[in-house]
Specification:
- It is a single chain.
- The chain is of the alpha/beta class and 262 residues long.
- The protein has a single domain (4-258), classed as Alkaline Phosphatase, subunit A, CATH 3.40.720.
- The protein is 28% helix and 20% strand.
- It contains 8 helices and 12 strands.
- It has an 8-stranded mixed beta sheet with strand order 3-2-12-9-1-8-6-7, sandwiched between helices. A two-stranded parallel sheet has the order 4-5. A two-stranded antiparallel ribbon has the order 10-11.
- Strand 6 (108-112), helix 5 (124-127) and strand 7 form a beta-alpha-beta unit.
- Helix 6 runs parallel beside helix 7 (194-218).
- It is globular, with a radius of gyration of 17 Å.
- The two termini are 19 Å apart.
- Residues 76-245 form the Sulfatase N-terminal domain.
- It comes from Deinococcus roseus.
- This is Membrane protein.
- Keywords: Hydrolase.
Amino acid sequence: MLNVRAMIGTHDVFMITLDSLRFDVAEKAQLPHLKKHFSAWEKRHSPASFTYAAHHAFFSGFLPTPARPGRHPRLFAARFQGSETTHPETFVFEEATLPEALAARGYRTVCIGGVGFFNQETPLGQVLPGLFQESHWSRDMGVTRRHSTQAQIRVALNVLREQPADQRLFLFLNLSATHRPTHIFHPELQQDSAETQQAALEQAENHLVELLEAQDARGPALVIITSDHGEAFGEEGFHGHRLGHEVVWTVPYAECVIGAGP
């Protein structure tokens, strides 16, 4: 387990959610540049089956749980009585959410939205971005745009460039490319499928790596990359998410530290 308690105040924190990405799709994807930062995806179970609920859980410390028996200590956690998954190295905070906790400790907190729950166009779409000091979204970052990842990473890189070296940063990015419709990323297929979602992820890889390399040059950061839930493409008659199918609950997860030197 990473000692996140010791990292707070010295490390930036990146959280990247690959919206709707299935574990089996991530496992098959060809991601040679991203895999330089972590060796393999870990199979985990999401705390929720759709974006809004999953991110509320994530921001309070309930990241996807390892898909194996046992009590698994958490990296960070909002304090509450009876918690059985905190550890001496867990960053435990009094605030309700991680963005609020890091802001209270001097971090600049930035949300770069993707899917509709982050678009700020409705009261519901303002709830999750409202947890951050600063939030960004434009239609170019939405789920229907083939170049959404480029637009999101462009904003993220601008945030890094303007960030003072001695100012810590919490950067959250909700990647929209892996959310349906993903057939827009495939040259032949016209319907969403595991194959089109894989194409979307592979298309996004170079842009994600560009962001990680920029942070690597800036300084140390804890990086968490995960999916919020999966997507059913007709398995046993199920389509979409917000349902209790194995392909929806099972997600890829990775964590690493970058920019810390040799």
